[in-house]
């Protein structure tokens, strides 16, 4: 019987047990290796990455490659598509990915068919002749959920590759490779590493031939993580299930409280996870003031760390105009839920 995720997060990616072997992998700070081995040079591999990659593979399945950031992992996937290849992607999602896809579409690098991922039939109708379906679910920051089993099954029937950005749901909630997807992607920066001290990305890949192509892409584009960052990410991964479950429990409680708050007009929450997006009943300026008025919740972008963070997403010029000006994305951390709530209500009282 395979181990539970809570156990794998702690036991995976450790050195072999021999007398006096360390419990943790070493940080292999080296740019090159003595000849004769399978790695050869520091852009092709590193034992510290391998420990982290083995651990992520135990959580997501397949074989894993880590990258210098989540965007680097995503770019590697698009880099192996032929010039002008048609792909299907959500019309809203993480602004960095949306900007990349828009630029690829405009330049002709890819033909992107933008769809509403919540509308399953619309996504399936767009699949004919596509080279890849790129899915982010739940989406950032509106938290829309795609019907992954239905979409993956439809794509597979047509022989189309499917990649899923699993950053928000994490393998504790959904497992894209088990549903038949080809790639499960993470911004490791977020929940997997969990301490807002690392930028990193990963791709877990089911097919060995696809793994080899993406490994080559990483080697030759040089989008590799640093060994120290890999070690930090693995250290963070050990407590990922504890952190995620705690934050999720608090998020569910905060959703209840936010829903009945008179200054909140809408709460978005997919029923799982540690991200809550809500709309302030007021102007963009008032919403901005709320974010700037917290004393414990950090007014900062990013998510998935032990510390609660929030921001008004439209403060970023690249954020989609379909995201409401009054929308705050809250990443619920591991502080006591009552302290998070006190800070939210104090900040809301500032308007
Ligand atoms: C859903 C999602 N995917 C990908 C990324 C990009 O990851 P990174 O910032 O590690 O490059 C982010 C970053 O916020 C994200 O939220």
TrEMBL record:
Pfam families: Cys_Met_Meta_PP. GO terms for cellular component: cytoplasm. It is an enzyme of class 4 (lyase). GO terms for biological process: cysteine biosynthetic process via cystathionine; transsulfuration. Residues 1-23 are annotated as: Disordered. Its EC number is 4.4.1.2. It catalyses: L-homocysteine + H2O = 2-oxobutanoate + hydrogen sulfide + NH4(+) + H(+); L-methionine + H2O = methanethiol + 2-oxobutanoate + NH4(+). It comes from the Bacteria. Gene3D superfamilies: Aspartate Aminotransferase, domain 1 (3.90.1150.10), Type I PLP-dependent aspartate aminotransferase-like (Major domain) (3.40.640.10). Its cofactor is pyridoxal 5'-phosphate. The modification N6-(pyridoxal phosphate)lysine is found at residue 190. Keywords: Pyridoxal phosphate. One of its GO terms (molecular function) is cystathionine gamma-lyase activity. Belongs to the trans-sulfuration enzymes family. PANTHER family: CYSTATHIONINE GAMMA-LYASE, TRANS-SULFURATION ENZYME FAMILY MEMBER. This is homocysteine desulfhydrase. It comes from Candidatus Planktophila vernalis.
